[in-house]
């Protein structure tokens, strides 16, 4: 029994521990959480600071958008101003070139027709330039060369083949051109410088659309479609006048282009006074000059190139 006694004590100790483990429930420890709250003005200050930062960001964004919009408007205004300046410069350059061309053509007409007045020469040059602008395929210098060779810019010129006016248009061709332009053809139509010039420009425009070759255009303009065919075929039936006419016009046209491009247009020797222009005096109104006696006007008799002096004398006697 003595040996078994320690064993029973150990068993008893184990049972007591088990009993305590099963019956004893320790209470959980209570913990207190303390939330420290600051004062109210600190919270308001923090909130105000956040709102202020948001406002500054929004204001900066708004200002940047305004600056960008103003920059775009300024760029658009600058672009419009540059376009207007370019248009103005182009217009000035065009007007300057046009006036240079107009005065050069006038001076050339004065040289080839010494009887023409300044006003007449300026009118013929302006009509040629206006017609070439209406019919862009017709170079005004080519028209100037044709008028020089055809009539030497005499509006009353008439050839042996009955071609009439500045650009020597046949009546049959003139009737067709007048119908195309909506005019009533009359006997004096082709002697009108304005109508003769526009009719010639229209005719050349039609021929350029048909041939696109200046030689063929000039061959038909001078001798008709049959003669143009002879010119293309280079046959002996080609009229001698057309054979010499085409190179003459083209040579003069090339010379005029070179003079106008290089600015070496020969000036008129001396300025002419327009006889039809009313006289003026310094410090005197033009109306006061109307009461002055004037010398009787001498009526000029215009004749075509090659007209005999007897015919001019007869015309003067008849008048």
Overall description:
There is one protein chain. The chain has 319 residues and is mainly α. Helix content is 65%, strand content 0%. It has helices at 5-23, 40-112, 118-134, 140-151, 171-181, 193-211, 214-233, 240-262, 286-289, 309-318. It is elongated and about 165 Å long. The model is unreliable at 292-319 (pLDDT under 50).
Summarize the structure.
This protein has 319 residues and is mainly alpha-helical. It is built from ten helices and no strands.
Q: Give the ordered list of helices and strands.
A: HHHHHHHHHH
**Shape verdict:** elongated
Q: Give the N-terminus to C-terminus distance in angstroms.
A: 189 Å
Share in helix: 55-70%
The biggest beta sheet is recorded as: none
Structural class of the secondary structure composition? mainly alpha
Number of helices: 10
C-alpha Rg (nearest Å): 52 Å
The amount of beta strand, in percent, is: under 5%
Poorly predicted runs are 292-319
The average pLDDT is 79
Q: Report the count of strand segments.
A: 0
Annotate the secondary structure layout.
Layout: H1 5-23, H2 40-112, H3 118-134, H4 140-151, H5 171-181, H6 193-211, H7 214-233, H8 240-262, H9 286-289, H10 309-318
Key structural traits:
319 residues; disordered C terminus; mainly alpha; elongated; 65% helix
